[in-house]
């Protein structure tokens, strides 16, 4: 009953799923997960029938085996039609039963696993689709690891339930009921004796097993900690070496390993004790029943038993024990499955972003000129409602203008542009695009007209081609090359032996910072948005790379409304208007020439700090 998982040689590190107390309510809620099996109900029903057949043949086995023993004891079975079953015939019957059971079991597994695989695929797809459409604040309150475990561990629990747990539950209950019925038919007296002793022992064994499982969990946790050390230090190996902390880390790992071993050894001692308890307890119980049974076999009175009957009895007793123990374990599984399914259903019930709002302008594709108007915009992050990040921001941009946002770190510049993308709901005021509040546009359509070149470009792990085409997934090769040329990226792409098919590595690490930026610019050029958001990198590139990126940006900004979170003087100079942000407000605005001459202004001071000193 205790699962393995006590050793330290690489065990399943999946987080231990939370269990829910079984209540009628949680049961009903959890059962809603069954709606995912509805499309496969035909297969499910066939599986259930096959399960019923295989359980019946399994249960018939001890009965017939008992008859074989009786036949060996010169007491062949006479059937109603005058047919007498001798040893050979009974053995043949037994063989047929086993073959049938094998076939039924195969069918049962085949159908149930199909149901569980398809169901689980549908649940995963549903969850992922949900994740893609949840609003940004959801991801700020839930950690990636947690979200990940919903789609892996929790779903795996459900998979287990559909492929194994349900079938087991059915089988164990049927076995228990049938076995008790069968032994009652053999001998009520012996049955009562058995039922008074055996289930008690099995119950004790089960409880003991449960405690052992808690210990094995401690071992797993300790082992997980050692693995965290490995993962962390390998990821930051440069830092470890730069601080010459190799020895320190080895010691830390060793210490952690020893703790894991200690936990494992303690667990294994209990496991050893458990095994001897099982042997002595369970087999002792069987001996008790055997002893009583043997007494009845040797007695001549009304309680007399045939040897074959005793054999059947003992096997059914084994079945009773196994199903009592099995049901105990299944109870735990049902609990954690219900917990998992509740967590999954909770996510599926989360409200998604209102992406497809009713269109104001009818069916024609949305056209955006690019006028932007912020009116008294106020904002607090939903995760930090006490802090007013933006207070009364008002400005407007005519289509095609370039404005630069400057200001100290944490002033609220990125927040201003994120609100344009509607990653968050405003706390006050409104934002208009082409004279209409952004909340009235179809979100997907509107975002389709806004391009972003972020400060740190995170590429996806595929090829350069795939990464550029992310701006327009159906782009032709010609369009991709064209965009790469405009973004000053074609030169380096061409120099790679594999050209556009060059793999960029995880998050794009195989490209230099400047190259990554140019890929991001090419992506934005391909998207061809009416409104562009540029978040300039703070880290400076070398002057050659800088020039290439700058040219690419200039190309990209042509004929678009651009908002630039600017860190470079050259960019700022070219801006039609500069907004100086501080503490969530616009404290100055105007052109570079005007602002730079306002000696006491924040802008002039920032200029001194940022540019003249460097
Ligand atoms: N997702 C978030 N949740 C809660 N608070 C946030 C979040 N993002 C930013 N903030 C807070 O909002 C404030 C403004 O941040 P923002 O990123 O807009 O500043 P910024 O002017 O762009 O700074 P920088 O130039 O350093 O990027 C900061 O105090 C920051 O801590």
TrEMBL record:
Subcellular location: Cell membrane
Segments crossing the lipid bilayer: 44-65, 90-111, 169-186, 192-209, 272-291, 311-331
Membrane topology: Multi-pass membrane protein
UniProtKB keywords: ATP-binding, Membrane, Nucleotide-binding, Transmembrane, Transmembrane helix
Keyword Endoplasmic reticulum: no
Presence of keyword Transmembrane: yes
CDD domains documented for this protein: ABC_6TM_bac_exporter_ABCB8_10_like, ABC_MTABC3_MDL1_MDL2
InterPro entries from the UniProt entry: AAA+_ATPase (IPR003593), ABC1_TM_dom (IPR011527), ABC1_TM_sf (IPR036640), ABC_transporter-like_ATP-bd (IPR003439), ABC_transporter-like_CS (IPR017871), P-loop_NTPase (IPR027417), Type_1_exporter (IPR039421)
Domain ABC transmembrane type-1: 45-336
GO terms, molecular function: ATP binding
Record domain ABC transporter: where: 372-608
Protein name from the UniProt record: ATP-binding cassette domain-containing protein
């Amino acid at each position: 009953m205790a699962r393995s998982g006590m050793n330290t040689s690489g065990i399943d590190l999946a987080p231990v799923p939370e269990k829910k107390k079984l209540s009628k309510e949680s049961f009903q809620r959890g059962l809603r997960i069954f709606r995912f099996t509805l499309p496969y109900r035909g297969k499910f029903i066939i599986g259930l029938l096959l399960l019923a057949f295989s359980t019946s043949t399994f249960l018939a086995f001890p009965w017939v085996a008992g008859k074989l023993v009786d036949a060996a004891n010169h007491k062949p079975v006479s059937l109603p039609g005058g047919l007498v079953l001798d040893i050979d015939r009974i053995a043949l019957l037994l063989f047929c039963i086993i073959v049938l059971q094998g076939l039924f079991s195969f069918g049962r597994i085949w159908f149930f696993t199909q149901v569980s695989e398809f169901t689980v695929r549908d649940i995963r797809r549903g969850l992922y689709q949900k994740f893609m459409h949840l609003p940004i604040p959801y991801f700020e309150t839930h950690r990636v690891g947690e979200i990940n475990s919903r789609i892996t561990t929790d779903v795996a629990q459900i998979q287990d339930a559909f492929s194994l747990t349900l079938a087991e539950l059915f089988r164990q209950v049927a076995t228990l009921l049938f076995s008790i019925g069968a032994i009652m038919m053999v001998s009520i007296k012996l049955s009562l004796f058995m039922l008074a002793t055996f289930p008690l022992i099995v119950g004790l064994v089960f409880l003991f097993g449960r405690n052992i499982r808690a210990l094995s969990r401690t071992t797993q946790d300790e082992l997980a900690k050692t693995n965290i050390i490995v993962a962390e230090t390998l990821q930051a190996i440069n830092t470890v070496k730069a601080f010459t902390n190799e020895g320190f880390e080895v010691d830390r790992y060793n210490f952690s390993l020893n703790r894991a071993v200690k936990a494992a050894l303690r667990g294994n001692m209990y496991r050893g004790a458990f095994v001897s308890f099982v042997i002595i307890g369970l087999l002792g119980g069987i001996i008790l029943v055997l002893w009583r049974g043997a007494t009845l076999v040797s007695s001549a009175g009304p309680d007399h038993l045939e040897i074959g009957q005793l054999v059947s009895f003992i096997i059914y007793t084994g079945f009773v024990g196994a199903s009592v123990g099995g049901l105990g374990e299944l109870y735990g599984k049902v609990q954690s499955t219900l917990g998992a399914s509740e967590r999954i259903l909770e996510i599926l019930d989360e409200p998604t972003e209102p992406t497809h709002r009713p269109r104001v302008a009818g069916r024609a594709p949305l056209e955006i000129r690019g006028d932007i108007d912020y009116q008294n915009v106020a904002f607090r992050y939903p995760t930090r409602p006490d802090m007013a990040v933006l207070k009364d921001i008002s400005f407007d941009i005519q289509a095609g203008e370039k404005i630069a946002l400057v200001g100290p770190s944490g002033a609220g510049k990125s927040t201003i542009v994120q609100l344009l993308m509607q990653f968050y709901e405003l706390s006050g005021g409104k934002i208009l695009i082409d004279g209409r509040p952004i909340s009235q546009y179809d979100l997907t359509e509107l975002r389709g007209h806004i391009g972003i070149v972020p400060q740190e470009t995170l590429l996806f792990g595929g090829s350069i081609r795939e990464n550029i085409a992310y701006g327009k997934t159906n782009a032709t090769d010609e369009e991709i090359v064209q965009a790469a040329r405009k973004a000053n990226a074609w030169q380096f792409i061409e120099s790679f032996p594999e050209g556009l098919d060059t793999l960029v590595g995880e998050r794009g690490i195989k490209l230099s910072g400047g190259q990554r930026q140019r890929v991001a610019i090419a992506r934005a050029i391909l998207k061809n948005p009416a409104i562009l958001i540029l978040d300039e990198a703070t880290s400076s590139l070398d002057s050659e790379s800088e020039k290439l990126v700058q040219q690419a940006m200039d190309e990209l900004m042509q004929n678009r409304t651009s908002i630039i979170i600017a860190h470079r003087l050259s960019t700022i100079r070219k801006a039609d208007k500069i907004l100086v942000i501080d503490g969530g407000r616009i404290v100055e605005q105007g052109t570079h020439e005007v602002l730079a001459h306002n000696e006491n202004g924040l802008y002039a001071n920032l200029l001194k700090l940022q540019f003249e000193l460097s």
